[in-house]
Design goal:
Distance between the termini: 35 Å
Number of strands: 6
Helix content: 55-70%
Number of helices: 20
Order of helices and strands: HHHHHHEEHEHEHHEHHEHHHHHHHH
Bound molecules: arginine
CATH superfamily of the largest domain: Fumarase/aspartase (Central domain)
CATH architecture of the largest domain: Up-down Bundle
Radius of gyration: 30 Å
Shape: elongated
CATH class of the largest domain: Mainly Alpha
Number of domains: 3
CATH topology of the largest domain: Fumarase C, Chain A, domain 2
């Protein structure tokens, strides 16, 4: 059992207590961020004259070597250490002796873990953003290919008005676009450095917090040391954004599952993204879509967990906060996996344009347009609504669509109908005439697709900073 404390204790920690308390099994996830934070801290300590240059060089060399040895498999992170911070410090002291004991000068594990978690989360925000961007590119491609692929639009899962596949997919484009902007907000708000806050009340050493913040690519240092060590808002915000992403993915998956059913057959999921049944040979199941839908609960769970953990914690750091990690890591991995798989599934999915169009023709999706036709000929909308209602009843009885009736039959219900009504209620006209911005009409759809292209070409302000953290170590290596 290797731990950083023990001076004031008279008994050894009970093994079970030790294991219950330890976090190395999961905080090793941010091993490289822990090294990075230490490197920044040590460079700053030397600049401030708190460490000599020789001490700084020895520590940096030791840290870089530890990182290399772990990465290349020569040094294993084992459970004999309490946490990743102890692992690094113990190994450093073993390698370079007394200078290693100065690494923790002016620092506490409270601000150390706060900076590690922030660095790690910040990087994950960027990864998730990249995956969202890839998904948006795929969706935009589907939209461009399907500007005139007619399908029924639904309300209450009942056919309502005709739309196009481009329009339907475009709704999800908007959702995932908002998800990206949420990530950008979070990134901006969380990008302040807690290092130097100490245990809770800063330190008596003349640390330069602006300097460490800038080395680590933060906008600046945080401004209250108690808040710095006990703020996990960014974890909550990130989990909330991840939950929203999952909610969007899950809704889309639900539709794909419906569309893939034998009753609809709007889509065919590629063999690579479906699975069979062990008993029913005819089956090809949409398991990936179902799993993504199912895993949504797991990500919501992580959000609920951290919200509940944080609600009763007095200032400043309390050990409860160690619970911010496992479920968060799990949620991040889950969302990244789901985004990548979902993107592959929709990219390879076949859309049955014939089936969609056929379905759009049935179910009186042109009833509103038939009413609008009468309005165009002077009938007040409320009366037109009543006339078409009666027309629909007549059609249900005859088991046909409005467009299947003869002009005589139509005129019997309202003399206002003329031969041009057939053109007016055709699928093409129904869609084409929906020309307000945001509607499925071909021209406005093209306009919106143009805006999306422009949006995707611009990129995201922080995208270039993606591998900044790694560069810091490489600089020192070089
Ligand atoms: N493992 C701890 C965590 O994850 C690190 C901070 C420990 N600080 C302390 N005072 N015990 O929160």
């Amino acid at each position: 059992m290797a731990q950083l404390w023990g001076g004031r204790f008279t008994k050894e920690t009970d093994k079970l207590v030790y294991r219950f308390n330890a976090s190395i099994s999961f905080d090793q996830k941010f091993f490289s961020q822990d090294i990075e934070g230490s490197i920044a801290h040590v460079i700053m300590l030397a600049k401030q004259g708190i460490l000599t240059n020789q001490e700084k060089d020895a520590i940096l060399k030791g840290l870089v070597e530890i990182r290399k040895d772990v990465e290349e498999g020569r040094l294993a992170i084992t459970e004999e250490y309490e946490d990743i911070h102890s692992f690094v410090e113990a190994n450093l002291i073993e390698r370079i002796g007394d200078a290693g004991k100065k690494l923790h000068t002016g620092r506490s594990r409270n601000d150390q873990v706060a900076v590690d978690m922030r660095l790690h989360t910040r990087l994950e925000v960027l990864y998730v953003n990249e995956l969202l961007k890839e998904l948006l590119c795929t969706l935009l491609h589907i939209m461009e290919e399907n500007i005139d692929t007619y399908m029924p639009g639904f309300t209450h899962l009942q056919k309502a008005q005709p739309v196009t596949l481009a329009h339907h997919v475009g709704a999800y484009f908007e959702m995932f676009k908002r998800d990206r902007s949420r990530l950008e907000d979070i990134y901006r708000r969380m990008n302040y450095c807690p290092l130097g806050a100490g245990a809770l009340a800063g330190t008596t050493y003349p640390l330069d917090r602006n300097y460490t913040a800038s080395i680590l690519g933060f906008e600046g240092p945080t401004l209250n040391s108690m808040d710095s060590v006990s703020d996990r808002d960014y974890v909550i915000e990130f989990l909330s954004a991840l939950s929203t992403i999952m909610m969007h993915l899950s809704r889309f998956c639900e539709e794909i599952i419906i569309w893939n059913s034998d009753e609809y057959r709007f889509v065919e999921i590629d063999d690579a993204y479906s699975t069979g049944s062990s008993i029913m040979p005819q089956k090809k199941n949409p398991d990936i879509a179902e799993l993504v839908r199912g895993k949504t609960g797991r990500v919501y769970g992580a959000l609920m967990s951290i919200l509940t953990t944080m609600k009763g914690i007095p200032l400043a750091y309390n050990k409860d906060m160690q619970e911010d990690k496992e479920l968060t890591f799990d949620a991040i991995d889950t969302v990244k996996g789901c985004l990548a798989l979902f993107e592959g599934m929709v990219r390879t999915m076949k859309f049955r344009k014939d089936r969609m169009e056929k379905s759009a023709m049935k179910g009186f999706t042109n009833a509103t347009d038939a009413a609008d036709y009468l309005v165009g000929r002077g009938v007040p909308f409320r009366d037109a609504h009543g006339i078409i209602g009666r027309l629909v009843l007549y059609c249900i009885d005859k088991q046909c669509g409005i467009e299947d009736l003869s002009i005589e039959e139509l005129k019997k219900i309202s003399p206002v109908f003329e031969a041009d009504v057939y053109e007016a209620v055709s699928l093409k006209t129904c869609v084409e005439k929906r020309l307000t911005l945001g509607a499925p009409g071909f021209n406005v759809m093209r306009e919106v697709i143009g805006m999306h292209k422009e949006y995707l070409s611009k990129g995201w302000k922080h995208e270039n900073e993606m591998f900044k953290d790694v560069t810091l170590i490489d600089d020192i290596n070089g």
